[in-house]
């Protein structure tokens, strides 16, 4: 089951409100609040696409660069011992700590989520 919407490189959540009898969501992994709602899945998907397109058009009109979901870097707090062990392992492998982390994440995702990640669009 897919519980996310995708359009133009953006990912949106799908939530339900029993109280309001509607579906709603927001664009994930950006700081700007871009939200949408609908009564049906089809309406929610159309509202999501419209919200993304409107966000991109607004950024263009204002001369601003739209945020990209997940800019490609993040900080991880792992504690001294794990940091030291990883730095030593990277040195032994003659790779950077970034490369070691990238390889470990890639291997984890391939092992736990073996299906190919669909292109976002």
TrEMBL record:
| SUPFAM superfamilies per UniProt | Ribbon-helix-helix, TTHA1013/TTHA0281-like
Protein name listed in UniProt: HicB
Q: Which residues cross the membrane?
A: none
| BP terms from Gene Ontology | regulation of DNA-templated transcription
According to its UniProt entry, this protein's organism is Pseudomonas libanensis
Lineage start? Bacteria, Pseudomonadati, Pseudomonadota, Gammaproteobacteria, Pseudomonadales
């Amino acid at each position: 089951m897919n519980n996310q919407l995708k359009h133009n490189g953006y990912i949106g959540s799908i939530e339900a409100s029993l109280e309001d009898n509607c579906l709603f969501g927001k664009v994930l992994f950006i700081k700007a609040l871009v939200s949408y709602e609908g009564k049906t899945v089809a309406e929610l998907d159309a509202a999501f696409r419209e919200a993304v397109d409107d966000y991109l058009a607004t950024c263009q009109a204002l001369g601003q660069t739209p945020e990209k979901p997940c800019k490609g870097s993040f900080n991880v707090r792992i504690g001294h011992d794990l940091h030291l062990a990883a730095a030593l392992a990277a040195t032994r492998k003659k790779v950077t700590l970034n490369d070691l982390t990238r390889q470990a994440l890639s291997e984890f995702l391939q092992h736990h989520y073996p299906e190919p990640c669909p292109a976002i669009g």
